[in-house]
């Protein structure tokens, strides 16, 4: 491992979201690799109906690549700022925690890199306590009103019988874990995927997230991938009205981050432009420019395959066993799919669409030929 002087990290806030692709693109006029995500397991104790990686989940899996190999590739990326860890449920298997997660977090901490781990937070609190201090963001999913919703959603695709009481135990543990960790200073960020079901109850879900002590509420579209492919998506009109209800009913002390937002400042509809401007004027509300393929790559820690996102349909771009990550990233920037979606409007504070959102809602649009009709001052 190369010896570097750690960079002092600014606190994560609405004014500084190090995963956002906007900063590098606006400052340097090009994209560079600042973020890497590792898929460290395909095991999970849940099978959520909306899971965008559900078809990759397994009952048993082999050994991951040695963590030293992962770190050597990270060491080659001089521009690295953030490291994300996802699955499956990364914390499910103690071996993954001890042999992969903890060394990666220690490496990132020594180098001054921001870290995030995605967990369903349903495991006993002791499974998190001995490494959580090295983590910057604990990312959880929250798409439920109560234990009955959790039972239906989390075990929809499970394939074997699970009792309601068992589901209730996991649901209550998740909420209590979030409260305890938040009280102890952990930055817990809860994500909700907007679907025809969650849209009806999003204000209540937001209030529950605030009660759990989460500092941030991330709101994303339902991604039509894997388990979620057959689910009904919100129309854009439904999505817009849901956002407006959430803005009107939100807890102003909780940061709301809209990720992969399916509205753009080059829209032909005035209501879309009005929404875009409101989102950029509201206190404690941000719109994150999509990191996937703009400043981030995902690495499968078992095969070494490198892809644009952990739930996209673009085939692997290379393999970390024989390719440098920066070479793979530049290869992606020349890919026709990247060129189709990598538009940029500085005045409108927009770096274009997420690929899945584009395919779901804007198949007929060529974003590279459109012009922004709204100007944002940030």
From TrEMBL:
Domain called Radical SAM core: residue spans: 28-257
Matches recorded under SUPFAM superfamilies: Radical SAM enzymes
Keyword Heme assigned: no
GO function terms (MF aspect): 4 iron, 4 sulfur cluster binding; catalytic activity; metal ion binding
Keywords: 4Fe-4S, Iron, Iron-sulfur, Metal-binding, S-adenosyl-L-methionine
Coiled coil: none
The organism's place on the tree of life at top rank: Bacteria
Keyword DNA repair applies: no
Name this polypeptide is given: Radical SAM/CxCxxxxC motif protein YfkAB
Naturally occurring in which organism (per UniProt): Lihuaxuella thermophila
């Amino acid at each position: 491992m190369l010896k570097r002087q750690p960079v002092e990290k600014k606190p994560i806030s609405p004014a500084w979201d190090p995963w956002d692709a906007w900063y590098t693109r606006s400052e340097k006029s090009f994209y560079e690799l600042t973020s890497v995500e590792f898929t460290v397991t395909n095991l999970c104790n849940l099978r959520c109906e909306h899971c965008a990686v559900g078809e990759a989940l397994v009952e048993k899996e082999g050994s991951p690549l040695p963590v030293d190999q992962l770190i050597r590739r990270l060491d080659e990326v001089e521009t690295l700022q953030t490291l994300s860890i996802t699955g499956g449920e990364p914390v499910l298997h103690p071996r993954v925690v001890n042999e992969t997660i903890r060394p990666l977090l220690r490496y990132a901490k020594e180098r001054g890199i921001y870290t995030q781990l995605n967990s369903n937070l349903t495991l006993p609190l002791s499974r998190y306590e001995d490494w959580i201090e090295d983590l910057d963001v604990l990312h959880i999913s929250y798409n439920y009103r109560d234990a009955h919703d959790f039972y239906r959603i989390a075990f929809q695709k499970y394939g074997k019988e699970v009792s309601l009481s068992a589901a209730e135990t996991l649901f209550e543990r998740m909420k209590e874990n979030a409260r305890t960790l938040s009280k102890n200073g952990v930055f817990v960020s809860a994500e909700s995927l907007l679907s025809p079901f969650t849209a009806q109850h999003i204000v209540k879900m937001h209030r529950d997230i605030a009660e759990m002590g989460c500092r941030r509420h991330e709101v994303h579209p339902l991604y039509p991938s894997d388990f979620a492919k057959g689910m009904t998506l919100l129309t854009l009109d439904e999505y817009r009205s849901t956002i407006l209800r959430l803005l009107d009913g939100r807890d102003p002390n909780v940061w709301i981050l809209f990720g992969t937002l399916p509205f753009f400042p080059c829209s032909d509809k005035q209501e879309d432009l009005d929404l875009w401007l409101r989102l950029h004027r509201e206190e404690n509300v941000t719109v994150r420019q999509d990191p996937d393929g703009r400043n981030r790559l995902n690495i499968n820690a078992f095969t070494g395959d490198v892809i644009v996102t952990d739930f996209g349909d673009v085939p692997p771009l290379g393999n970390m066993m024989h390719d440098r990550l920066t070479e793979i990233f530049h290869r992606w920037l020349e890919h026709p799919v990247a060129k189709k979606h990598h538009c940029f409007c500085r005045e409108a504070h927009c770096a274009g669409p997420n690929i899945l959102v584009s395919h779901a809602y804007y198949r007929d649009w060529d974003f590279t030929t459109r012009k922004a009709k709204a100007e944002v001052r940030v």
